[in-house]
Specification:
The complex is a heterodimer of chains A (278) and B (164). Chain A has 278 residues and is of the alpha+beta class. Chain A contains eleven helices and 14 strands. Chain A has two domains: 152 residues, Uridine Diphospho-n-acetylenolpyruvylglucosamine Reductase, domain 3 (2-Layer Sandwich); 119 residues, 2-Layer Sandwich (Enolase-like, domain 1). Chain A is globular, with a radius of gyration of 18 Å. In chain A, 51% of the residues are buried. Chain B has two domains: 77 residues, Ubiquitin-like (UB roll) (Roll), CATH 3.10.20; 70 residues, [2Fe-2S]-binding domain (DNA polymerase, domain 1). Classes of the chains: A alpha+beta (278), B alpha+beta (164).
Chain lengths: 278, 164
């Protein structure tokens, strides 16, 4: 069907980003193809050490899923996206395919081993998330291709993560967000993944911030070094949500906070992660 | 669209507040426009029309959604509850009564949406604490009350429904 409609067609998943964009005339597709009537596209399964999410799985379904709680970053992210109404409609596949620079899922999932399953007339393919999003609102998807599933490896034992977004109010996009995943070996950080959202055209992996933690014992000095490296990695645009300097400051502070939560979770503590409001 | 072209209409059948409505509408019609203009149910309000304020909140198959952020054709085959469906046999619903008793409204524009968000919350959690109430109604903006009386109204509604 997408092949017949050509490049003027756009897919409609939860619609919570696309419909507002249509109203603003930022997008004016000739055809909208609604994916909501296709069955079996909403599911959460555990298989072979990974969690698998159907593309049309709603944020609220992930928020309330015990399986998804196995990966803290996923629960934090799902439970904090916009508000109840948006979470009841918006989908994980739609969020990734939309690739909004301020979207939550891409930033949360980029710290994990995430694979996007795509399907088109030439068959199915699997794309690592880091290769899936090319630029703001731009993915590797062909116009006749769609996302069917999002697969996330369950991190090893001794690994803990956190996702925090800072928002002025629930329904708006975050001013900045961060995802942190730490794998600990006793006091030493074996591996670290740190991502920054809303401070660049795509989610940014702060590799120097990760390097500041990897192989080190985590204390105020190393955590501050990581936060400073994150500040340098952020590349924000000033807008109504804040100046570039403000957003860098915010990104650094969020990274620090998320490292502390991730560390406690890696040690097996139950910590209720929460999004922050101005 | 080229001038003079006819707009294709699509059949939509929904159950709103227990009553069936069959209409033929343009694909671009939003659900909130459908409810207000095609079904004459004007209790659902258009506030910001940008997925922010929640004045247009209705229940779609028992879940709160912003009816300005979906198309009417997407609701085909669904069951919808609007504020008009809360009152039964001339009796206010306990949520409506609580909003009045606790002074949880002033101008009333946001109130239908708030009451339907409250409906979903209390169906899942009959005794919410303030933190849970804040999270549940975070997608509904009120510009009059300062929210404190709304929190009280939601809690009172929960108590009233438990007793009912």
């Amino acid at each position: 069907m997408l092949g017949q409609l050509g490049e003027g067609a756009k897919l409609l998943a939860g619609g919570q980003s696309l419909i507002p964009l249509l109203k603003l005339r930022f997008a004016s597709p000739a055809h909208l193809v609604d994916l909501n009537f296709i069955t079996d596209t909403s599911f959460i399964k555990e298989e072979g050490g990974a969690l698998r999410f159907g593309a049309m799985t709603r944020h609220a379904e992930i928020e309330h899923s015990d399986l998804a709680r196995k990966i803290s970053v996923l629960h934090d992210c799902a439970a904090g996206i916009a508000d109840v109404q948006v979470r009841n409609r918006g989908t994980i596949g739609g969020s990734l395919a939309e690739a909004d620079p301020s979207g939550d899922w891409a930033n949360a999932l980029i710290t994990l081993d995430t694979t996007v399953h795509c399907l088109g007339p030439n068959g199915a393919r699997k794309v690592a998330l880091k290769d899936f999003i090319l630029d703001a609102y731009t993915t590797v998807l062909g116009h006749d291709e769609l996302v069917t599933e999002v697969e996330v490896e369950i991190p090893p034992k001794g690994s803990g993560g956190a996702y925090i977004a800072f928002k002025r109010a629930a329904p708006v996009y975050p001013t900045a967000s961060t995802a942190v995943q730490l794998t600990m070996d006793g006091e030493v950080c074996k591996d670290a993944a740190i991502a920054l959202g809303c401070v660049g055209l795509t989610a940014i992996r702060a590799s120097e911030a990760e390097a500041a933690l990897r192989g080190k014992s985590l204390n105020d000095t190393t955590i501050t070094a990581a936060a400073e490296a994150a500040r340098a990695a952020a590349d924000p645009h000033p807008d109504m949500r804040g100046s570039a300097d403000y957003k860098r400051e915010l990104a650094a502070a969020l990274v620090k906070r998320a490292i502390h939560i991730a560390l406690r979770r890696a040690r097996g503590e139950q910590v209720e992660g929460t999004h922050l409001y101005a | 669209m080229p001038e003079g072209a006819t707009v294709q209409k699509i059949a939509v059948q929904v159950k709103v507040n227990g009553k069936s409505y069959s209409r033929e509408v343009e694909a671009r019609m939003l659900l909130v426009e459908f409810l207000r203009e095609a079904c004459d149910l004007t209790g659902t309000h258009v506030g910001c029309d940008t997925t922010y304020c929640g004045a247009c909140t209705v229940l779609l198959n028992n879940l709160a959604v912003k009816s300005c952020t979906m198309f009417a054709v997407q609701a085909d085959g669904s069951e919808i509850t609007t504020v008009e469906g809360l009152e039964k046999d001339g009796q206010l619903h306990p949520i409506q009564k609580a909003f009045g008793d606790a002074y949880g409204l002033q101008c009333g524009y946001c109130t239908p949406g708030l009451m339907l968000s409250t409906f979903q919350l209390l169906a899942e959690n009959p005794e919410p604490d303030e933190k849970e109430i804040r999270k549940a109604i975070a997608g509904n903006t009120c510009r009059c009350t300062g929210y404190m009386n709304i929190f009280k109204a939601v809690q009172l509604a929960g108590q009233n429904m438990k007793g009912a």
